[in-house]
Every structure is written in structure tokens, then in C-alpha cells.
Design brief:
The structure is a single chain. By secondary structure, the protein is mainly alpha-helical. The chain has one domain. 77% of the residues lie in helices and 0% in strands. The protein has eleven helices and no strands. Helix 1 runs antiparallel to helix 2, helix 1 packs across helix 8 and helix 3 runs antiparallel to helix 8.
Length: 302
Amino acid sequence: MRTLILLALVGLGAQLVDGSLGMAYGVTSTTLLLAIGTNPAAASATVHLAEIGTTLASGAAHWKFGNVDWKVVLRIGVPGAIGAFVGATFLSNLAADLAAPVMSVLLLGLGIYVLSRFTFVGLPTGRLGLPLRKRFLGPLGLVAGFVDATGGGGWGPVGTPALLASGRIEPRKVIGSIDTSEFLVAIAASLGFMFSLGSQGIDLRWVLALLVGGLVAAPIAAWLVRHLPPRILGSAVGGVIVLTNVRTLLRSDWIDASTTVQGVALGAIAILWAAAIAWSVRAHRRTPTPAATSPAEITTPA
């Protein structure tokens, strides 16, 4: 019962972050499942099954608040679904002892990207209103979908920063469109895992716990997307992902670090993480608000 309650809370927290930042539900949830010893393919399958419900609820909530660009949803979501199905099949056929560290490396890379992106760059703006082309959205969706299924998360960390960096769509619609299109990715990944694994290693109670937490958080996150500082949230989430997956790798057969080395390494990462959050808070406070400055004039402080 304690595990189910913990998973529900993780699902709630992860969806709050995902719905307001456009990323991190899958990465955060999968990281926890790996930390408690879940088979990598089963962990990703569990998260994607839960995401079918959470992304549907999140997409509906974002649509209600006007945060969705449906052209973007279709142009990135369909290739994303194809990439996710291929990625799920690939992960399901990896040996478990190889898949665990491989997934942790992928998650660590995504965590470092999220942490550095939001700490030092923040949310770029500019070039709003220019069209996003299919030749950009198609390959982006394909790669993001594959990474999402093989890493247990990655649709948001790959797709959201890429769309934000284009400067052609306002941040709230980037987040809403990425969250909504993830529904297609979650369905395709789940089908890929089901065809390859069946129900092996998947605990439906865990799926339900993650789903319940996510359903509670989805409408709240869609409303909060206009109010929470994404830069600070991104630094906080990136640090959690980095810290947890470094711990997993240090304890794996690949490294098998001593307790002393683990303690020193994790302590150093925790200090850097705290510094990153402090930097983001300082940078956020120095950033002009839209009310004071037009979007074209807003720049991200160094």
C-alpha cells in the first residue's frame, strides 16, 4: 500500500511538472520505477500505459485553456507515434541487465539537458507567428518518440525545447501541444510493449496509481502553466533526474562504485543542483515581465 501511495504522489507531482513545463512525467516516473528495481521495459510500459489517461486529461485541460495548436499536434504526434512503437519494440528485445544501465544513461542525458537548458538559457522568445514546417516537425517527432519509448520518457525533453528554440510558437502553446500530442505517442508505445512483452512484469495497480495521481494534477497544471516560473521548475526537475540516475549508474555492474565514492559524487551533484536552482531564481527575478516589456524585447539574462 505504501508503494501505491508513493506512486500516486509521484504521478501527481510528475504531471504537475509535465503539464506546466511540457516535460518530465515519463522521465521522473520511470526513474523512480528503475530505482525500486523494476525491469526497464516493464517500467517504460507501465509509465506509457498510465500516460494514455494522463495525456488525454492533460490535452483536454490545455485545450480548454486555449493552449493547443492542433496543426502542430498532428504534424509532430503521428511521426512521434511511429518512433515510439519502434523504440518500444527495440527496448523489449534488450537483455534486462543491459537495458537498465542503457536506460539510465539516456535518462541522465535528458536530465543534464533539462537542467542546463533551463538553468542557463531559460525560455527563449521571438519569431512568434512564423509557421512550423513539416520537414522540421516530422523528424523531430520521430526522434522524440523513439527516445521516449526507449528511455521511459523523452517526448517532452526533446520536443519542448526544440519547439521553444524555434521561437515560432508561444511557450504556453508549445507546452499544451506537446502534452496533447503525447497521447498518440503513449498509445503507440503501449502497443509496442504489449506486442513484445504481453503483460509480463507490468503491475496494473502501479499503472492505476500513477494514473490517478496524474488525473488529479492535469487540470491544475494546465491552469498553472500561466503562473509558475518554468525556468526554476526546469532546474529543479533536471536536478532530480540527474541525481537519481547517477546513483543508479554508480550502483550498476558497469561501475560498481564504493559507498564512499557514491557519497562524494552524489554530494557534489546535490551542491551543483542547489546552485543551479539559486541561479535560476536569480535569473527569473531579473527577467522583465510581459506587462512591463513587449515579448519582442524580452531577453534571457546570462
